Amino acid sequence: MYSRAEGEELAPIHRIIHTFAGALRDLGHPAPPAEVERWSVIVDEAMAGRARLFHTHDHVFDLTQTTDAIEALAGLFHDIVYVQVDQGMSSRINNVVGAYAEPGPNVYVLKPLAEDDVPAQLVHELFGVQPGARLSPFSGLNELLSALVAARELAPRLPLFAIAEIVACIEGTIAFRGLDAQGRSPFQNMADRMRSANARFSLGLDEQEIHAAVRRALHVSFRDVQNFADPDPARFLDNTWKLLPETNPALRTPDVYSIREYRIALHKMEGFLSSLTPARVFPQYQGEPPPEEHQQLLEATARNLDFSVRYLRTKLYPVAILEALAIATGGDAPLELFTGGLPKPSGTSKRLEHYLPPAEDIAQDQDPTLRAVLAFGRASETSFDLRASPAASFLYRRFGEAAIPRWMDHSQRFFQGTMSAQDFLRSQSPAATVPITRATARLAVTRTEALESLAASFEAGAAA
Asked: Which domain of life does this protein belong to (predicted)?
């Protein structure tokens, strides 16, 4: 199995070398050590990007846990371009990408291809794109550019049909696509494009080999999103959390990002996960995976999506209160001003939760798993926020599951601007707003008077 064996205890660069060398040897096209090293450095540099928290070496090694050499090579290359996260590429990758695409505002424009650049023409064919196409990072740009790098690097060493199979696997990692207007899945369309490429470039594949290539692409795509079917919802949530700073650059500076910036990051993730269907995560192709196995994947994904959406909505509610309090007392501000700094090794940081009343299990309708994750935290630490969610835990234990839809409805109206900060705060239970407002008044000392006045008005409104 690639990326395992003796590579298990090796440094990432050595594991990558081990995988490249083994895959090429098994395909009957071993490469000179210097060539293997060059490719390995390209992959290693890309995966080591400072802004990457999920799409890292470990993610690559997850995709290369296979006995199939084509799938392993695709796994190595599939994420080496990630333009919205890396915000710049290594010179090795940039030289290749620059030959094929011109960056523009929020998109890359595909350049014309040289007549003799058959590998790049093959990539365009398999991705179904043409020169002049304008692609964003959310419409297959990263996968296309990664495939172009893979094809350019490997074409001198491998036969063209093998390049086509690798490229098909990388295209398969364009995630979360549904059926097209004709009701066809991405993998049915890939089979059509493989047939077209087979004829155009004389790849020599028969129909059975074309279907095998598409099934390989399906396997790679499943490994790319395998965490969606994790039996532990908290572990799935942990992986999801690593994506937040990758896709929200403001969170990479945890000491200064604002309440609104943090809320937008959570809100975008909630919106994405709440709109995602399990079948877009794990599609089928010609009965693969088998119906029973496929159903298990769909059910596990549905559980994880439901859990994560409820978790995010529960976290969003206290953040909405904080954002409204900030707007009502002077405007958006660093989250740290209202909640305190992230814990330090000395343990001396004062935080919002230190000024909240003791948590009480007043609500009877609590999900034990959600309650535990809010109180004790996700599976691992992150650099940009707390592992646990003390304010959300405080409110959840007090109000329970039944409150989540109401919280989200009111929060959405506030986020969309159809409800003012003051109206949002006045519409909420004082049992939620008063403790949080008084706690923030202890921390946001430049706004203490205004915050205490608001807390008093909430109490007066409740008594009236």
From this structure: Bacteria
Contact 245, 94 (CB under 8 A): no
More confident position, 95 or 3 = 95
> How far is 328 from 316, CA to CA, in rounded Å?
18
Report the run of H or E that residue 101 belongs to, with start and end.
Answer: strand 101-104
Q: What is the pLDDT of residues 202-241, one digit of tens each?
A: 999 999 999 999 999 999 999 999 999 999 988 899 888 8
Mutual orientation of helices 141-154 and 118-127 as an angle, nearest 10°? 150
pLDDT in tens, 403-429: 999 999 999 999 999 999 999 999 999
Place of tokens 């990479």: 252
Residue 378 CA neighbour count, 13 Å, CB half: 22
Average pLDDT over residues 21-39: 96
| Contact between 247 and 85 (Cβ < 8 Å) | yes
Going by pLDDT thresholds of 50, 70 and 90, the confidence category of residue 319 is very high
Beta bridge partners of 102: 109
| Cα–Cα distance list, 365 to 95, 312, 389, 402 (Å) | 57, 18, 19, 7
Residues contacting 307, CB < 8 A, separation 6+: 233, 236, 237, 369, 370
Angle, helix 186-200 to helix 160-172, in steps of 10 degrees? 160
**Two tokens at 256?**
């200064």
DSSP per residue, 409-432: HHHHHHHTTSS-HHHHHHHS-HHH
Distance of alpha carbon 162 from the chain centroid: 29
pTM above 0.85, yes or no: yes
Query: Residues with Cβ < 8 Å from 158, sequence gap 6 or more?
Result: 24, 27, 29, 166
Query: Which one, of 191, 223, 199, 205, lies nearest residue 161 by Cα?
Result: 205
Please state, in angstroms and as integers, the Cα–Cα distance from residue 312 to each residue in 195, 204, 248, 278, following that order.
43, 50, 16, 18
273, 312 Cβ separation under 8 angstroms = yes
Q: How far apart are the first and last CA of the chain?
A: 70
**Beta-bridge partners for 134:** 109
Contacts for 236 with CB less than 8 Å, ≥ 6 apart: 227, 228, 230, 304, 307, 308
CA distances from 173 to 91, 232, 379 (A): 24, 23, 26
CB-side neighbour CA atoms (13 Å) of 441: 15
